[in-house]
């Protein structure tokens, strides 16, 4: 039989072991919490970096320089089939109605004569590349929607040179009162002379478009629907005058579209 002293000694050792186990468990929990906190910190940093990268250049409204974060786009089925749907969206800046939902031609080009306050241009619209976009542009041109409207935005950065037009109000947020889906080419390049649609996110195309006057670096999130085949020097001359605010703003050399008509 253990003596009273032995029982006390055994009890003391048991208590010490319990305290040691509790201390070890507390230390393990502390290590786990530190690891979790460090992991959370990494995630927060990554999220912040992604937010900065995807928001660089964003100006809100319908804008060419607001690349929306998205996966690499694939060609739209509308571009392949020519099945076009136009959906009511917002209040039109200038009322021209909207095109009928229809199956439209998916081959060939259509030339458009563009008279501006700084000189004349010719656009070649590519039905094979963006049939629904071309159909909308021709519809608006036929309704004189673009006539006597300003080109409200110019960019002059080293790798970003576009003139943006198509908002009758000149604010950069106006549109025709309808929208339609993107017709994207994942390999699309915004090279000198390209015409592309401005947008405020996926599938928000309306009437605003931009003319690329020098090779521009943009993610392929903007529908390319044609090229400027004559008169690009008109835009280049406007660009030489710069903007009213840094590298992105209203052109100092004001320019408006006088008439946009389908060539005969």
How would you explain this protein's 3D organization?
The protein is of the alpha+beta class. It has 2 domains: 55 residues; 186 residues, Cyclophilin. It is 30% helix and 23% strand. It has 4 helices and 14 strands. β7 and β8 form a beta hairpin. The longest helix is centred in the N-terminal third of the chain and has 52 residues. The protein is globular and about 90 Å long.
What is the total tally of β strands?
Answer: 14
Total helical elements: 4
The secondary structure category is alpha+beta
Provide the spatial order of strands within the biggest beta sheet: 6-14-4-5-12-10-11-8-7-13
> Helix share of residues?
25-40%
Give the termini distance in whole angstroms.
Answer: 118 Å
Q: What is the 3D shape?
A: globular
- The CATH homologous superfamily of the largest domain is termed Cyclophilin-like
Largest sheet: 10 strands, antiparallel
- The first-level CATH class of the largest domain is given as Mainly Beta
Proportion of residues in β-strands: 15-25%
The chain-level mean pLDDT equals 82
Uncertain parts:
34-79
Order of helices and strands: HHEEEEEHEEEEEEEHEE
Please tell me the total number of domains: 2
CATH architecture of the largest domain: Beta Barrel
CATH topology-level name of the largest domain: Cyclophilin
**Radius of gyration in whole Å, from Cα?**
30 Å
